[in-house]
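User: Hi! I'm working on a homework problem where we have to compare a predicted structure to a textbook description. Could you give me the structure for the chain below?
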Amino acid sequence: MKILVAYRGSNVGKDLLDLAVQHAKAFGAEVQLMTSLPGGDRTTTEQASEAEEGLEEAKKVLADQGVTAETHLLVRGKTAGEDVVAFARDNKCNEILIGVKSRSKMGKILFGSTAQYVILKADCPVVSVK
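Assistant: Happy to help. Predicted C-alpha cells:
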C-alpha cells in the first residue's frame, strides 16, 4: 500500500504527519511526502529551498517514529490539486492524506480549495485533516 501525504508544513502539518504514521503502521504502507509549487516566475529559489527543508523535516519526524518516507517536490506549473491527483495516479497511491484550513464562505468562493479539488478528482480515498 502507498500513502501520499500532501504536505505544506502548515499548522495542520503535525496532525497530518501523526495520521500518516498511524496509517503507515496499521497498513504496512510506504509513505510518499509531496509538496507542490507553481513554478516559473511564481516560485523563487528560496521558496523551493524552504519547501525542500520542510519535506526533509517531515521525513525526519516520520523516521523518528519508525516510518520511512520518500520526498517529492513538484514544480511543474500545475496547481497543487492537479499535482496531488496526478502524482497519486502516476504512482498508484492507495490513499491521500491532505490538510485543510478553515476559511470563510467567501474565501472558498474566491480562491477555490486544493483539498476540494483533490477530494473530487482523486481515484483513491482521500482523508482530510484539519
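For your comparison, note the following. DSSP finds five helices and five strands in the chain. Residues 2-101+116-129 form a domain with the Rossmann fold fold (CATH 3.40.50.620). Good luck with the assignment!
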